[in-house]
Specification:
There is one protein chain. This protein is mainly α. It folds into two domains: about 200 residues, Serine Threonine Protein Phosphatase 5, Tetratricopeptide repeat (Alpha Horseshoe), CATH 1.25.40; about 210 residues, Collagenase (Catalytic Domain) (3-Layer(aba) Sandwich), CATH 3.40.390. About 50% of the residues lie in helices and about 5% in strands. Strands 2-1-3-5-4 form a five-stranded mixed sheet. Strand 1, helix 3 and strand 2 form a beta-alpha-beta unit. The N and C termini lie far apart (about 50 Å).
């Protein structure tokens, strides 16, 4: 289960009115554009796993033998034999296409014999459900997967029984993935990637992972090379359902050596456990149940916990990023400082480029307020390529919109308009509707400017 980090420009909320409720800067006009067709990606891999096998073996254990709640899993389980996936009810064309692309990747990169099939008799069922029903059943979850049920009605009947308890499985034979029916195309795809991967393999999320969707920071939108290798190990011929953790882990190093010979270098970095105190603080900071002040306090607490433990990388950067987001409407200087700290935590590590690209959106907003076109262009160019590689259309569209504003500041109006037009198709996929895309364009155009 994941919290969705919305791409709505929170950096705007403290310094600009809601779209359509107040005037734009002098001389500015609301953006009115003819939209192209929605664009989407070709379901390519973001790249191979890049970490030592010894490090990946430790992550495999933590991902495969523990639930997100911290409960241990007594046995190794997976589907045995060919796997079929089907939709219960109708599904939008973009989701069907995204599923086909994902299944092709799972066959090619993870070596899993998996195909789309009619819902009748399928091993894994995907069903779209209203957000209200999702919240009632699993508060705080944007989407989720459960074992042994075939549809929403079965889940409702079994929700308080051991039927849907992953710890009781001996082998996986049936699972259901539930997605919100009003989500944007990208949000549906992102949920599909993580929940289908969890239906097939690891059930845990680890905040320290730099290169995986199995991380509640939501920085990665689609399954990575790391994720595909983890799934490939899960379905290796040496393993079978019902094995104990020691039995599995005695074989994993040899499996990784066979599947990923380039990873046989060094022991890698030993990451300490994240701890329920940090996870609890971040859960409150990211959730919507607490007051803004409490959420800011909890994000600051997570930063302090990480600093006391000497953390760098994903956890340190994410706590700062969350704190910055929460400070935007409260203290702009604290927000900017937090984003800068997040950039430092993420910077310089090839595996954290997509994390740094998320920070770039926030830094570009501050640069636009300062009318610093050169900084915006320097920031957004590399970040746009990273967003493309990691198939994040919402992030890509925002970066393109900020870059277009910078080109306007330099007097390159034709190039700016061409870039805006190019952003629209990606925006439709990332934000779901023309109105939402136009809202973001107008929000960016509405950022206050210092006096000339």
């Amino acid at each position: 289960m994941k919290y969705l980090i919305l791409f709505a420009l929170v950096v705007m909320t403290a310094c600009a009115p809601q779209p359509g409720t107040a005037p734009l800067p002098d001389g500015a006009e609301p953006v009115r554009l003819d939209f192209p067709a929605m664009r989407s990606f070709a379901a390519n891999s973001p790249g191979p796993a890049r970490r030592p096998n010894a490090e990946m073996a430790r992550d495999f254990f933590d991902l495969s033998f523990q639930l997100e709640s911290g409960r241990p899993l007594p046995l190794f389980t997976r589907f045995e034999g060919p796997i079929s996936v089907g939709f219960n009810g109708s599904a939008p064309a973009h989701l069907v296409s995204d599923l086909d692309g994902l299944l092709a990747r799972l066959r090619a990169e993870a070596g899993i014999d998996i195909r789309r099939a009619p819902a009748t008799g399928a091993d894994i069922i995907i069903e779209l459900v209203s957000p209200r029903e999702l919240r009632q059943t699993a508060p705080g979850a944007a989407c989720f997967v459960v074992p042994r049920v075939r549809n929403w009605a079965e889940l409702r009947r079994a929700r308080r029984s051991p039927v849907i308890d992953w710890t009781t499985l001996q082998v996986r034979e049936r699972a259901a993935v539930f997605l919100p029916d009003d989500a944007t195309p990208q949000e549906m795809r992102d949920c599909l990637h993580e929940e289908l991967a969890q239906a097939l393999g690891p059930l845990n999320d680890l905040y320290h992972l730099p290169d995986s969707v199995f991380n509640d920071d939501n920085m990665h939108a689609v399954l990575t090379g790391f994720d595909m290798l983890i799934l490939r190990v899960t379905y290796a011929s040496e393993l079978r359902s019902g094995m104990t953790p020691p039995e599995v882990m005695s074989l994993v190093p040899g499996i990784l050596a066979r599947l990923n010979p380039g990873g046989e270098r060094g022991r890698g970095q030993i990451m300490g456990p994240t701890g329920r105190d940090w996870i609890g603080a971040m859960t409150i900071a990211l959730g919507g149940g607490a007051t803004p002040a409490v959420r800011r306090q909890q994000a600051a607490r997570a930063i302090a916990i990480g600093q006391a433990r000497g953390w760098t990388g994903p956890r340190a950067g994410f706590a700062q990023y969350a704190f910055g987001r929460l400070q935007i409407g409260n203290d702009q200087s604290l927000a900017l400082g937090a984003f800068a700290a997040a950039g430092l935590a993420y910077g310089g590590d090839e595996k954290l480029r997509i994390h740094a690209a998320h920070v770039t959106v926030q830094m570009a907003a501050f640069a636009l307020i300062a009318r610093d076109a050169e900084t915006i262009l320097d920031l957004t160019g590399p970040a746009m390529e990273v967003a493309r590689q990691h198939e994040n259309a919402a992030l890509l569209a925002l970066l393109m919109m900020f870059r277009a504003e910078a080109l306007d500041l330099q007097g390159q109006t034709e190039a700016a308009m061409a870039l805006r037009l190019d952003s629209l198709g990606w925006g439709l996929y990332g934000f779901g509707s023309r109105d939402e895309v136009i809202a973001r364009l107008n929000e960016i155009a509405s950022l206050p400017r210092p006096p000339s």
